[in-house]
Amino acid sequence: MQPDIPVIGFAAFSGTGKTTLLERLLPILTRSGVRIGMIKHAHHQFDIDTPGKDSYRLRKAGATQTLIASSQRWALMTENPVEDPPQLTELILHMNQKHLDLILVEGFKQARIPKIELHRPGLGHPLLFPADNDIIAIATDTPLEIETSLPRLDLNQPEEIANFILVQYLEHSE
Question: Could you give all domains of the chain from N- to C-terminal order, each with its CATH number?
Answer without folding.
Answer: 7-41+85-169 (3.40.50.300), 47-84 (2.20.25.120)
